[in-house]
Structure formats: structure tokens, C-alpha cells
Amino acid sequence: MFDSGASGDRRGGRRGGYMRSWEDEGRNEAAGGEFGPPRRGERRGGGRARARRGDARTIILDALRDGPKHGYEVIKALEERSAGRYVPSPGTVYPTLQYLEDQGLVRSREEAERRVYQLTEAGQAELDAQAAQVAGFWQRFAGPAAASPTQHEVRFLREELDHLDHIVWSGLRPALALEQSESIRRVRSAIEECQNKVRAIIATGQTE
């Protein structure tokens, strides 16, 4: 869905165009500005929530509380914790992470061609000082309007199926061009094995 390793910008976005406007808006949000209209790839509908003034900076710090993460992992962590109701765009997360690094609240390092961020002592102190703000933000997702865990897992399942489809057909392109039947057969066998495991899980669930 989001590629933190896209070429051109170490934070995952290409320079210029709409990614430049994303960075400008993201820095304004990180510094406490209001969020503007929905960005490309960000939906308003479906019960999605948006952070209030100044929340993005603190909530992204909170996402790093349990350990280092790269940008996409921050997005997924916030999505999972909110049961899919708060999904910040890359145009919010990556500029905010850079802003936090500039402020000395996080530090980063390159790991497996991705930039991984973690809290500094100053960042942990800031997070502790903003505990009430963090608690208030997450309280918004504690009511009955929150999406059910089942709906949340179904969406992740669909994403993983789409990802698998992409892996298979993009990965097999050279084998198809070279007519490497054995490689194609091994992939097919792996898919069949996966299907059998899924059938077994479904059958177990139906008998419980």
C-alpha cells in the first residue's frame, strides 16, 4: 500500500509534485497546524477519524513507544490500534517523523534500505509529559462506534491476498518469459499447500 523505500526521498516520497505539498502540509501538522482537506489516497468516508490540532506529533511518538519502526510500520500500528479508524497518510507520517528528528525527539538509522525511527530520551520525556493528550486521543476509539476486530481483520486479509497476487505474477514474469516450468510448478505447489492450510483452519472453526 505504501512503499517507504521509494526512490528519490529517504522518507519514502518523490521530490516535487504532490509529494512536495504533502511534506509542506505534514510539517505544518507536526508543528500543531490544522489538517486540511483529504489528500490523495486518504479517504474521509467509512468512519475514518482524523487527528486534531497538534495530535499528529504526539501520536506518532506514541506509536514508537514499544520500539523502533519505519514509516509504514507506524501507519500500520496506528491503524491496528484504532481498529482501522485512524490511518494517517504517508504525507503526514514521513514529514512528521523528520520534524521530530529535527527536534531531537527521535533518531533514525538505515536498516535494510529503510529508515527506522526510535524515541530518544527527550522524546520519551515529551511523550510522558503529553500522557493526557495521548489518552484523550485514544479514548475517541473506545466507544461503540469503533470498527469491530472482525471487520479490521477482513480488510487486512484482502490486502494480503492482493499482495500475494502481486508477488506471484510479478515474480514469475521472468520464469514465464523463459518458460521455466519447474519454477512455476513450485509456486503452484506452494499455493496449493497454503489453500490446504486455509481449508483446515476454516474446517476447525466450523466445528468449534
Keywords:
208 residues; mainly alpha; Arc Repressor Mutant, subunit A; 2 domains; three-stranded antiparallel sheet; 3 strands
On the 0 to 100 scale, the average pLDDT is 75
Portion in strands = 5-15%
Under the CATH scheme, the architecture of the largest domain is: Orthogonal Bundle
**N- and C-termini, Cα separation:** 34 Å
User: What is the fold-level CATH name, i.e. the topology of the largest domain?
Assistant: Arc Repressor Mutant, subunit A
- Summarize the biggest pleated sheet: 3 strands, antiparallel
Overall CATH class of the largest domain: Mainly Alpha
SSE order in H/E notation?
Answer: HHEHHEEHHHHH
Which range best describes the helical content: under 10%, 10-25%, 25-40%, 40-55%, 55-70% or over 70%? 55-70%
Number of extended strands = 3
Radius of gyration: 20 Å
Order of strands across the main sheet: 1-3-2
> How many structural domains are formed by the residues?
2
> Count the helices. How many?
9
